[in-house]
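Why Restriction endonuclease? Reviewers of the renewal asked for a concrete example.
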Amino acid sequence: MNKKYIEELENLVKRILTPMQDMPFNVIIRSISGHSVLPFKKDNALLKFLEESFCEIGEAINKNGIKSNRPNEVGNKIEPIVKKYLDKNGLKAVTPQNRLGKKVSTGYPDIIFSYKNTYYYLECKTYNQANVNTTQRSFYFSPSDNFKITKNAPHLMISFRIYKIKSKYYTDYWKLFSLEKLKVDLKHEFNQNNREMYGSSSQIDIIMQKNVEKN
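Here is what the prediction returned.
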């Protein structure tokens, strides 16, 4: 390859990798899934059910605490508790299905629930008060063939503020958000799979390798 061509490729890569900021979440979801992020219409009866559910969830969390080695994993452990108490209050919370009708536990969003024949997507998060004004990543999602948005619906997020006592996490506050007006940033990532790194398709040079005696 000649020098000019290489320079053109390098400049192209630089332009591609420039982060895109303040992109409307509702537009991104629509472009990926073909479904709209609907405005959350306040319904007093629904709000009462949600308030009761989230208060009960907080009490359930604090009864025994949540043991976790990493604070960012606490949200994953809260998800089944959220489902349990939404169900208890008649909101029929389940894991969302992908386009093929298969329930997928990983990825955005965590839960879909229904009330008066209207569906709502719900993401479960936790946060630490000390990090509220930092740039630490707190919300993310990725396009996928298994994307779980298959309905026009409001997108909500329940976030529990957590604190740690010894080896367990507890909560003292929660917030429910509507994500319709959320703005997101796009940061590109290069990656590779196991087959290309370690398996039959690998083309990278192995400098050295050796077995280690097992215990």
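The CA atoms of residues 37 and 182 lie 11 Å apart. This is the kind of structural detail the renewal will allow us to pursue systematically.
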